Amino acid sequence: MSKKLRIATTSLAGCFGCHMSFLDIDERLLALLDLVEFDRSPITDIKHCGPCDIGIIEGGICNAENVHVLYEFRKNCKILIAIGSCAITGGLPAQRNHLDLGSCLTEVYLTEPGLAHGHIPNDPELPLPLDKVHPLHEVVKIDYFIPGCPPSGDAIWKFLTDLIAGKTPELGHGLIKYD
Amino acid sequence: MTTTDDLPAFLDALLARHGNNPTNLLQILCETQDRQGCIPPPAINHLSQRLGIPRARIEGVAGFYSFLHLRPNGEYRVLFSDNITDRMLGSQILMEKMCQQLWLQPGKVSEDGLVSINTTSCTGMCDQGPAMLVNGRAITRLTHQRVQEIGSLIRNNTPLAGWPADFFLVEDNIRRSGPLLDNTSAPGDILRAVLFSSAVRPELVEGLHGSPFDTSGGSPRTEIAKDIVEAVKHSSLRGRGGAGFPTGQKWEACRNAPGSKHYVVCNADEGEPGTFKDRVLLNCQADLVFEGMTLCALAVGAQHGYLYLRGEYRYLLEPLRAILQRRRDNNMLGKNILGQAGFDFDIAIHTGAGAYICGEESALIESLEGKRGVPRSRPPFPVTHGYMQQPTAVDNVETFCSAALAIQMGAENFRAIGTQKSSGSKLISVSGDCPRPGIYEYPFGVSVREVLQDCGAVNTRAVQISGPSGMCIPKREFDRKLGFEDLPTAGAFMVFDDSRDLFEVARNFVHFFAHESCGFCTPCRVGTSMLKQTMDKIAAGHGTRHDLNEIENLDKVLQTSSHCGLGRTACNPVLHTLKHFRPAYENRLKSLDFEPAFDLDGALARARQMTGRDDAGAHLKPEET
């Protein structure tokens, strides 16, 4: 048996729905574990990504931290995959793109009642939001895209097994869904 | 201009004139806007009730055409023609100046509702640009002084009728003429020749008088109709609108197609940027156009014809209608044409409203039927299922002229002009970097170099043949010849000299396609926008080699999956300039493998401003990879 492939996954400006869908491969997860091992991922709780073969990212880019994580993945992963609508187009979070970021922050922290005590949080610990939400491929080179919101477990399984087998992944009829 | 009190009465009169027929919806909307400045909600309600069609359909149609507005868009609606040739003549700075003068932002209506300023696709005045449209009227040869005068006229609320007449002067600029432009036949001559003196078949003339108009049997007129088709076929005339389909074959197919009615449609939606020959023909050879249409009607057995005039040429509408009326008065249109019982044919003019896609024949037919100009799935082709699903012969303005000419001079003589596969002459619309822009008529087979010499162009870097969807020809290929064998063309010939940046030319064309995509099919709607974004990314200095590859991938998607030719050709300007002028692109690329599509640190600026932060964590360095 050749060396196991190393996979990292993360969710940026996403809802973890794609990760949940990933878990929908169910018992095939065990078969997958015969072929791969996990680096940084919600599955392992490893905080930073090391050298990997495959990186899978759900969610778009909405703040500075997303950019750092994306760069970390791009630096370490031979193949980088954008999974789901948000990673590919910006998705739901990108609905704020037609609003000015300043008025969003004002509305949330200054105008509406809440917990912010009348100021916009400015702790250096907090990542700053970008003025627009961007898809991943606008920030780094992305090698593959798995469309869907979320893509089904079957689609993810087919895609990964193709990739691991060294084939160009192909999602046939029924595996590509856009909603 | 914006009276509303007698709106219902106006609309009812308008509807009555259009037979309360939803097929004329686009014309009804155009005329409503002519009077009201926009199509206000009460008008939509009224039309919806009277025509018995849903509001959504009316708004859908109005929303499709860029010259129609559902909201007030200023009493004066100024649109600067944004073709690359207008830009080369300084249109952008003129527009900026005018915006400053009137305290306006492009695309916004002034607060007092007086004026709006925006850009529009090529208005077909490339030889006398920069040009603009004010409330649909073309104004040419803009200068700083002229634009300032226009600004003052608008500020003083002077009605368009009171503006200096020379503003609206559109010149023909005929620089070289040939058999077509030199044609001096009197109106009706060719028609008479066909019907009576019969160069076609003298023995038929006798039996012709009083015979019923019958396309099914072997009556004399049927024979003459067949002879017209044969003559056009024999002349090897091919369509002049760009696609080059054999005209005789089209007429024959239309004639043979079963249908309750047959139609003749003249495509005068000359939207391809850089093309303006049809405007000149409609101005100086309109009778020949109508003569060609009438001959076609005789050939295919049509009683109704339409001329679809692009909205930008609205100023030609009244003169053309007057010519139609004169032809009716002289019995060259209407009932029993030239005394031939049963030979009935009349022509109506429909205007477009700023949609390039309506130059595609099936989209044009949709538009004629009062719908959004979305191209149909073909086949079936218009020759069998065209206007109102009936057999329809759709031909370009120049094609009708050439057909009439071929019949007049005889197929053999016509074929003697030009080359073996490209018979006859071709009007070339020359614009760009040359001292003598205008219309040049050449026999097919003329080389690019000859045209350049004739128009006085020097230091030419490239020529864009047949508009953005055509080909970009670099200097080393100037010996190539115009014609269906080598460089097919609808007539546009835009000259770029050594001072021009071919990347910016291609970017202008790509923006054009993204704006004009009808939105019906996803590959084109999304693909043309992605192409635009990629070109803008490269222009902004964020481009990489990867982006050039992406353009080639996009091209494959657009080529293979677009619904119509717009999407299939949208990548051409980029691919051709990439092929011949790659350094124009590479000079702009960052030498990295990948670059973000936007300024990462700049994207945090608003958040920094709102939070008052400026620490290290509040900045992003792109070289972090």
What features would you highlight for this structure?
heterodimer; A: 179 residues; 5-stranded parallel sheet; two-stranded antiparallel sheet; B: 625 residues; Glutaredoxin; Rossmann fold; 5 domains; 6-stranded mixed sheet; 25 helices; 41% helix
Count of extended strands of chain A = 7
CATH architecture of the largest domain in chain B: 3-Layer(aba) Sandwich
Strand order, biggest sheet of chain B? 5-11-10-14-12-13
Query: In CATH's first tier, which class of the largest domain in chain B applies?
Result: Alpha Beta
Fourth-level CATH superfamily of the largest domain in chain B: NADH-ubiquinone oxidoreductase 51kDa subunit
Strand portion of chain A: 15-25%
- Rounded Rg of chain A: 18 Å
Distance between the termini of chain A: 39 Å
Number of helices of chain B: 25
For the residues shown, what is the average pLDDT of chain B? 92
